[in-house]
Write a structure and sequence with these properties.
single chain, binds 4'-deoxy-4'-aminopyridoxal-5'-phosphate, alpha/beta, 7-stranded mixed β-sheet, about 15% strand, 2 domains, Aspartate Aminotransferase, domain 2, Aspartate Aminotransferase, domain 1
């Protein structure tokens, strides 16, 4: 007998980026400059007795710490097992199966995945040629939730403030702004989370260097946050992750700022080196660059054989094939550039 599966769900594959274990891994835009010191101290000082009991439900200490870091009230903060989880919970909290979400394309690949898993329909709307979001196109879908990632993964480009404001002012439903890379960008749109129809998600996985601890959060109106909390459930963030994230948000902000600035300096140097190879990058405000390059998947494959992992994309709308390269310490970038030089057709 075949298992009693859900028809619209059965054929969804696992999310499987080419995650070859390479000596140099620039494929996931994480912080390659080390572990925030206060978070590391918590990790070292954690005792056996601290792992035998449940954490306090709904992670109140983490909500407090995020509230202080973002200048919000704890009632305006929800948290989760990475911002992946916060996004997934948001979809479950606000949309019935069969309802529609819209997002610019290309964007964070997990959006179509989360839509499918939650039985939702989804409408990708191409980024404009200048890489700003197409507000009219997004609104024309009539979607109940519109997702915008800025700086955008995988392009690194940003949505303009004017476009975001018009979207928030006129969207019929919820606007979910993903600021996973906010700490690297010139501007933040966190203030839009004070509107009644906006949630802004962020993560400790990128600038704060805690990807393995899986901590993300969203800020927004208390009424919206309360709905997401129900979908999240009480114990989504582990006790250790909560304590490490609280330490990082409270004591390691200067550490994070310095590492983020370092990543931006590396990025500027990388853009120059790529130009020397005849490659131009999209205008980026994240800790990675997108390089349009015909045959990018084959180039990435050759780079992997030289122990360097970068992310390749094929046939992106309006862009074509491209590599996405994260920024780490310069000796790492040097190894990546050497591998790229050898791999170029
Ligand atoms: N949003 C964007 C745009 C991302 O790039 C990522 C990580 N790849 C996430 C959300 C999820 O990050 P996490 O679950 O680690 O917080």
């Amino acid at each position: 007998m075949s298992p009693p599966t859900r028809a619209s769900y059965r054929d969804i594959p696992l999310y499987a980026p080419s995650k070859a274990r390479c000596r140099v891994d620039l494929s996931d835009n994480t912080n390659l400059f080390g572990l925030p010191p206060a978070a590391e101290r918590v990790l070292r000082e954690t005792t056996a007795t601290q792992v035998g009991r449940y954490p306090v439900g709904y992670s109140p200490d983490l909500r407090q710490a995020v509230a202080r870091y973002t200048g919000m009230d704890p009632a305006q903060v929800t948290t989760g097992c990475g911002s992946d989880d916060v996004i997934d919970c948001t979809l479950r909290a606000f949309l019935e199966p069969g309802e529609l979400i819209a997002y610019p394309s290309p964007t964070f690949v997990m959006m179509s995945y989360f839509a499918k898993v939650n039985g939702l329909r989804y409408a990708p709307v191409r980024l404009r040629p200048d890489f700003d979001i197409d507000v009219d196109g997004l609104l024309a879908t009539g979607a109940k939730l519109i997702y915008v990632c800025s700086p955008n993964n995988p392009t690194g480009t940003v949505a303009s403030r004017a476009a975001l404001e018009r979207l928030v002012d006129t969207a019929p439903g919820l606007v979910l702004i993903d600021e996973a890379y906010a700490e690297f960008a010139r501007d933040s749109h966190l203030d839009l989370a004070r509107r009644p129809n906006v949630l802004v998600t962020r993560t400790l996985s990128k600038a704060f260097g805690l990807a393995a601890m899986r901590v993300g959060y969203a800020v927004g109106a208390p009424g919206l946050v309360a709905e997401v909390e129900k979908a999240r459930g009480p114990y989504k963030v582990t006790g250790l992750s909560e304590r490490m994230a609280v330490a990082a948000l409270t004591e390691d902000v200067p550490w994070m700022r310095a590492r983020a600035d370092e990543a931006l300096a590396v990025r500027a140097r990388l853009v120059e080196e790529l130009a020397r190879l005849g490659l131009s990058c999209l205008p980026t405000e994240a800790n990675f660059v997108m390089v349009p390059l015909r045959g990018a998947p084959a180039v990435a494959e050759t780079m992997r054989a030289r122990d360097v992992n970068v992310r390749a994309f094929a046939g992106l709308p309006g862009i074509g094939d491209a590599l996405r390269i994260g920024c780490g310490p310069w000796n790492v970038m040097q190894a990546a550039l050497d591998a790229l030089r050898e791999a170029l057709p």
